[in-house]
Amino acid sequence: MAQSNPEKSRIRIEAEMICESFVADGASRFETDILLPAEVLLDLYGEDIRARAYVTSDPERGEMMLRPDFTVPVVQYHMDGDGRPASYTYFGEVFRKQEDHPDRRSEYMQVGYEQFGGRDPAEADAQVFGRFSEVLAPLNLRAATGDIGILIAMVGGLRTTPERRVALMRHIWRPARFTALVKRFAGLAPVPPSRAALLASPVPMDAENVMIGLRSEREIAVRIEALRADAAEAPMPGEEVELISSVLSVSETCPNALAHLRDISVDLPGILPALDRFEARCEAMARRGVDVDSLQFEASYGRTSMEYYDGFVFGFYSEARPDLPPVATGGRYDALTRRLGQGREIPAVGGVIRPDLVLDLGGLP
């Protein structure tokens, strides 16, 4: 739906006010182009990002993408610097296709705050979450939290083949595909027809690097061999499937969720370090005045967000307007700094606020 210029002006004024509150906390202003090189984003997220981003072509710069968010360019900027602790804030338009929600805006404003470095990730998580809570407090929003790091540790601790762990890890952010993989590995679902056809295909002994569609003959041969090796593996034990289901179904207040997950860790000890980080974050939040006893934790929360989150994740929602998307979202993305820092990693956590939704809910004083 088109927005009038006066409405856009109001959104920009609201964004500026929120951004200034982060500047007052010591954050530096960050600016980046609206048109970004598509190569980096496609390398990070694969071809799936095409389904939710606007891609175009430039005769000089090649394939370009209308800015889907600010996080990647701000991480690139920081990792190109001296690596010292720093925080940044920004606001501007981002562009996302809305095929599943045609009533939602495909061009909207984001205000962001990103924090890099520091010796205590739990304190940084608590500080960022606490600051967002303070900014948005007048709107009486519901907060939701999760931890992708626990899910990553869950997959890493499964008693299955390395190849299956890699496949499951790749699809943590795609719940339907993840569930389908678990069922197939456990022998609870039939092999898809396309996979069955590949398994039945003859493997050329002298496969060459000749292209067949998008893949070479050699790549297809390697793929068939890998599929046959996986098909020969024993099914994933039912106990492992139950552990996955138990972790993913946890949805309680933070203290109860932590206790429940510690019970599960008796049979899945690989998640213990992630649970220790969860507990440290809860303690840091409590020290900042966050009511942790009533704060909701959902183990599956954040799995449909962009794939750079690898730890704490959070969102703020209006219970009075369930038709609206989250007013704010954020989380930890240490692994993204490693990807864009050529192996050098810096702790990083941040989030974004939708000023247009803030105005839909009456605005901030």
What overall geometry do the principal axes of the alpha carbons give? globular
Largest sheet: 9 strands, mixed
Number of strands: 14
Instruction: Name the strands of the widest sheet in spatial order.
Output: 1-5-6-14-13-12-7-11-10
Query: Would you tell me the overall average pLDDT?
Result: 89
Distance between the termini: 27 Å
Helix content: 40-55%
Low-confidence stretches: none
Structural class of the secondary structure composition?
Answer: alpha+beta
What Rg do the Cα atoms give? 22 Å
Q: What order do the SSEs take from the amino end to the carboxyl end, as H and E?
A: HEEHEEHEEHEHHHHEEHHEHHEEEHEH
Strand proportion, as a percent range, falls in 15-25%
The helix tally amounts to 14
Task: Give the gist of this structure.
It is built from 14 helices and 14 strands.
Summarize the structure in words.
The protein has 365 residues and is an alpha+beta fold. 43% of the residues lie in helices and 18% in strands. It is built from 14 helices and 14 strands. The protein has helices at 5-24, 38-45, 71-79, 121-136, 148-156, 162-170, 175-185, 193-200, 217-231, 238-248, 254-265, 272-287, 334-340, 355-360; strands at 28-29, 35-37, 55-58, 62-66, 86-95, 107-116, 142-147, 211-212, 215-216, 251-253, 296-298, 312-317, 328-332, 348-353. The strands form three sheets. A nine-stranded mixed beta sheet has the order 1-5-6-14-13-12-7-11-10, sandwiched between helices. Strands 2-4-3 form a three-stranded antiparallel beta sheet. Helix 4 (121-136) crosses helix 12 and helix 11 runs antiparallel to helix 12 (272-287). The chain is globular.
